[in-house]
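pipeline: protein-struct stage 2 | run 1193 | Pyrroline-5-carboxylate reductase
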Amino acid sequence: MAEAMLSRLLANGYGANQVIVSARSPERQAYLHSTYGVTVASNSDVAAAHTVILAVKPQVFSEIESELADSSVVQHPGTVLSIMAGIPSARLRRLFPQRLTFRAMPNTPAQVGAGVIALATDSAATEAEVVAVKELLSVLGEVVVLRENQMDAVTALSGSGPAFIALIVEALCDAGVAVGLSRSLTQTLVYGTIAGTVKLLDEREIHPAQLKDAVTSPAGTTIAGIEVLETAGVRGTLIQTVKAAYQRAQALN
Ligand SMILES: NC(=O)C1=CN([C@@H]2O[C@H](COP(=O)(O)OP(=O)(O)OC[C@H]3O[C@@H](n4cnc5c(N)ncnc54)[C@H](O)[C@@H]3O)[C@@H](O)[C@H]2O)C=CC1
Ligand SMILES: O=C(O)[C@@H]1CCC=N1
C-alpha cells in the first residue's frame, strides 16, 4: 500500500524531493530509491517529516513504536496519517503527542487511482488541515470521511473487499471455462458484467433487488442459478465473511 501511495503521489504532481521513505530490507530500500528517485532514510528521519505516513503491518508497529519512543523526533509538530488496520489514533497520539493524527483505510484499487479511502480526522484539526490530508489521499481515489469507531467495519468491507471480490471473479471465470468458454473470453465477459452491473446500479440509482428481478425471467436461466446461490447460503456467507474480517480488525487493536 505504501508503494501504491508513493507512485500515485509522484504521478500526481508531488516531487520525489518532497518524499522520504523507510523500509526494512536493504533490497527494498534500493528498489524504492532506484525506481522512484526518493530518499531512503531511517524510521527516525522519516518520523521527523511534516507529514508522517505509517504503513507498516500492525504487528510491526510495536517495534517501530518502541524504536521511536526514545527519539526526540516524536516531539516534532505536524501530522501523522496511519493506514494501519486496527491501530487506534489514541495510540498514535501517545507516540506523537505534538501531532494531529488521522487514520485512513485505503484499498488496493488505489494503485490505479480507483480506491475508496475512509478517513477519520482529528477533531483538533482545522478545515484547512483536513483538506490537506484529503488532497493527499485523493490521488488514491474517492475519499469518504467518517468516524474512527467505524474504521474496523470499513477495514472489513472495503479494505479487505478487493480480495473477496477477486475470489468471486476468479470463481466466475472458472465457471465460464466449465461451461466451455475460453479463459480469455470468460475474463472479458466476467469483468464487463461486474463493471457494467455496478455502473448501472450506481448511475440509475437502482436497488440491487430491482435489477435482480429485471434479469430474472419466469422459469428462465437466471432463477435456476439463483436457486443454487440461495440454497448454498451465499448471502449469509458474505455477511459472515465481513463479520469475521471485522472481528479480526478489532482483535488487532
Ligand atoms: N494490503 C492492503 O490491501 C491494505 C493494507 N492496509 C494496511 O497497510 C499496512 C501495510 O500493509 P501491506 O502494504 O499489505 O504490507 P506489506 O508487507 O506489503 O508492506 C509493509 C511495508 O512495511 C515495511 N516495513 C516492515 N518493517 C519495517 C520496519 N521495521 N521499518 C520500516 N519499514 C518496515 C516493509 O518494507 C514494507 O514495505 C498494514 O497496516 C495494513 O493493515 C490498509 C489498507 C489495505
Ligand atoms: O488483511 C489486512 O489485514 C489488510 C487490511 C485491509 C486489507 N488488508
